[in-house]
Design goal:
This protein is mainly beta and 400 residues long. The protein has helices at residues 20-24, 45-50, 52-55, 189-194, 198-205, 366-371, 375-382, 386-395; strands at 10-11, 31-32, 35-36, 69-71, 78-80, 83-88, 100-106, 111-116, 121-135, 141-147, 151-154, 160-164, 170-176, 187-188, 222-223, 248-249, 257-259, 262-267, 279-285, 290-295, 301-307, 309-315, 321-327, 330-334, 339-344, 350-356, 364-365. The structure holds manganese (II) ion (2 copies).
Length: 400
């Protein structure tokens, strides 16, 4: 497989340990050298401590790049019997027009009800286990049990369900390749039944109208039910032999691309063919290391931070750059073609997801570009000695 076979994606970061991030810990005041002054007015110290690079921006930051972070901790919590959900859409993060995200929790037996929606659904299981089901437009059916580290993908309009399994259900991230999509605008089976004439339902389903007396009068969304039987007892015979393309993908069971400073696993149409509208990378960066300076030529990047602490600087051309801090539960965003890097600023491994509204993961590496361009030409621009460029080229040989 040619995925990621050309280089590391994560810089081994020889000298990046002692950066401004470390210096920022020394002060909770907007002071840089002789510039600035301590805050003497109202302040939110906890927020400031979470955002050292916003309180004390690197001197290279400049201009008016829009906000590129929103935390699920600041998102409205929709609480139901059996679980909850919260979402980050363009309403919360206006720059994120290509992707919306939902964080959902289902207790054991709890069901995200049978439904469908206009955009496709891409998902990553964060903790626990769930049973997922779908039936496609040709009448193939799909059922699978998914665990932490697994993905699933339901194409646009395909009806599906999610149910928490013992012992403690599950929590997962959903992503939809449309920033204005809301979990509140799904087509739900109970909503359809509540708003269809009973006589028509009975006629369509060849039922006695009395058999419809108990249908809910409004959408359930999430509801508590009993845990399902073992999966083999739960299968419905499908004369067509099931879906032609698997809707689940065991991402964390894949061999990662290993770099000196971390690990990367990619899921896109090259190894998860059904996922035509979302390409994904799961990235782990060890303490002291960084995801190298790069950009994406084909799509905006929507990020979800799983663990650890990070800072990202985004360069937007015309002299503009801005730095944000991230931690578990945060969403980040990078518009297409803007270069960026992500440093692990904490003491534990940093884990995050990069998602793209695209069938393919693609990125361009600054170091690779420099290393593979005639060295005297690069030297003429940057006054970097060409022997150093040759060393970068050697370092950037394929690692797999
Ligand atoms: Mn859905
Ligand atoms: Mn990126």
């Amino acid at each position: 497989m040619d995925i990621l076979d050309r280089r590391t994606l994560i810089a081994a970061a020889a000298a990046c340990g002692a950066t401004a991030a470390a210096a920022a810990k020394n002060s909770n005041e907007p002071l840089i050298g002789a510039k600035g002054a301590p805050i003497i007015g109202p302040r939110n110290v906890e927020r400031e401590q979470q955002n050292p690079d916003i309180l004390r921006p690197p001197s290279t930051d400049h201009g008016s790049i829009p906000n590129l972070r929103f935390s699920f901790a600041d998102a409205h919590m929709k609480i139901r019997e059996g679980g909850w959900s919260r979402e980050v859409t363009v309403r919360e993060l206006p720059v994120a027009t290509t992707m919306a995200g939902v964080n959902m929790r289902l207790k054991s037996g709890a069901v995200r009800e049978l439904h469908w929606h206009k955009p496709a659904e891409w998902a990553f299981m964060l903790a626990g286990r769930a049973r997922i089901t779908a039936v496609d437009n040709d009448g193939h059916n799909f059922i699978s049990d998914v665990k932490a580290g697994d993905l699933w993908y339901f194409p646009s309009g395909i009806p599906h369900s999610i149910q928490g399994l013992p012992e403690d259900g599950c929590e997962f991230l959903l992503a939809f390749p449309d920033g204005s999509f809301s979990e509140d605008s799904t087509f739900a089976i109970t909503d359809l039944f509540a708003h269809t004439d009973r006589g028509v339902l009975a006629k369509n389903l060849k039922l006695d109208a009395k058999q419809l007396d108990q249908i809910p009068t409004e959408e359930l969304f999430i509801f508590q039910s009993d845990p399902p039987p073992p999966i083999d007892a739960d299968r419905i015979e499908d004369s067509l032999g099931g879906v032609p393309q698997d809707m689940a993908f065991r991402l964390m069971e894949q061999q990662p691309t290993i770099s000196p400073g971390g690990r990367v696993r990619i899921a896109d149409t090259r190894n998860f063919p059904i996922s035509t509208d979302v390409a994904a990378a799961h990235v782990e960066v060890d303490p002291g290391h960084m995801r190298e300076i790069h950009w994406h030529p084909n799509a905006d990047e929507w990020q979800f931070y799983i663990s650890g602490k990070a800072r990202m600087t985004v360069f937007a051309a015309e002299g503009n750059a801005r730095t944000f801090d991230y931690q578990a539960g945060d969403v980040g965003y990078v518009p297409k073609s803007m270069s960026h890097f992500i440093e692990n600023t904490g003491g534990e491994p940093l884990q995050f997801l990069e998602l793209f509204r695209s069938p393919r993961f693609m990125d361009v590496s600054l170091a690779q570009w420099m290393a593979l361009t005639p060295h005297e030409l690069v030297e003429a621009h940057l006054k970097i000695d060409r022997s150093a460029l040759e060393a970068i080229r050697k370092d950037k040989q394929p690692v797999i």
